[in-house]
Every structure is written in C-alpha cells, then in structure tokens.
C-alpha cells in the first residue's frame, strides 16, 4: 500500500473531513481514501459518454436501440400531457 502526505491543508478542511468521517462512521483516513477512490473512478468513467455507458449497462436486460448522446445540446423540459 502507498502512503500520501498532504502538507499545508487548511484547518477548516481538516475539520470538515473529520465531521464527514463521523457522519459516515469512518475514521478520517478511511474517509479520505473513499473520497480519493471515488474521484479517480469518476474521472475514469467520464471518458465514456453517458448514453454509451447506459446502453452498455442495460444491454443485457433488453435495452434496444441507440441512446443519443446529448453532449452540447440544450436541455429541454419534459412535456406532460393533461
């Protein structure tokens, strides 16, 4: 296992990490490890567009057709019929 030393961390950040760790029932070290794992996982997953990830994830349960990628398009509000 590797070790990482973080220098010059603001006291307020340390206190917030400790509070967050208590809320989750972790030590501060475990909370920081979880945050770092999730940050790297999110970064790696962000390279594949969301529509493609959804298609791949649900292909085994019968998702048919393509899911268009929405990157760069304006979001439209949902239309509900009365």
Describe the structure.
By secondary structure, this protein is mainly alpha-helical. The protein has a domain at 11-61: Arc Repressor Mutant, CATH 1.10.1220. Helix content is 50%, strand content 0%. The protein has 3 helices and no strands. The chain has helices at 11-24, 28-45, 50-58. Helix 1 (11-24) crosses helix 2. The longest helix has 18 residues, at 28-45. The model has no long low-confidence stretch (mean pLDDT 81).
Average pLDDT across residues? 81
Helical residues, percent: 40-55%
* Name given to the CATH architecture of the domain at 11-61: Orthogonal Bundle
Radius of gyration: 20 Å
* Number of H/I helices: 3
Write the H/E string, N to C.
HHH
Tell me about the largest β-sheet.
Answer: none
List low-confidence stretches: none
CATH class of the domain at 11-61: Mainly Alpha
What characteristic shape results from the CA principal axes? elongated
DSSP strand content: under 5%
* CATH-defined fold name of the domain at 11-61: Arc Repressor Mutant
State the end-to-end CA separation: 59 Å
What's the total count of β strands?
0
Tell me the structural class.
Answer: mainly alpha
Secondary-structure blueprint of this entry?
Blueprint: H1 11-24, H2 28-45, H3 50-58
Quick description:
By secondary structure, the chain is an all-alpha fold. The protein has helices at residues 11-24, 28-45, 50-58.
Give the tags.
mainly alpha, elongated, 3 helices, 82 residues, Arc Repressor Mutant
